[in-house]
Q: What sequence folds into this?
């Protein structure tokens, strides 16, 4: 799985993704954070980690469907 293509970084698409990139940027010690740190520069991690979470869905699945933050179904 290629986490990003070339040298092009976009802001996180969901709150969960943004929190993951923030954790990786700050040295979290779980497998996905380590994988992100190996595959991206610190600046790329930072680009995904910064920004407001306001208006972002809690999660986005593989197919682009968004789940609202708050109550579960």
A:
């Amino acid at each position: 799985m290629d986490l990003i293509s070339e040298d092009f970084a976009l802001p996180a698409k969901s709150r969960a993704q943004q929190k993951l990139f923030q954790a990786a940027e700050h040295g979290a010690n779980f497998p996905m954070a380590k994988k992100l740190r190996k595959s991206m520069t610190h600046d790329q991690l930072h680009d995904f980690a910064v920004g407001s979470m306001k208006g972002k869905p809690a999660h986005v699945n593989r197919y682009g469907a968004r789940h609202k933050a708050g109550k579960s179904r």
User: Anything to note?
Assistant: Helices lie at 15-25, 31-39, 42-49.
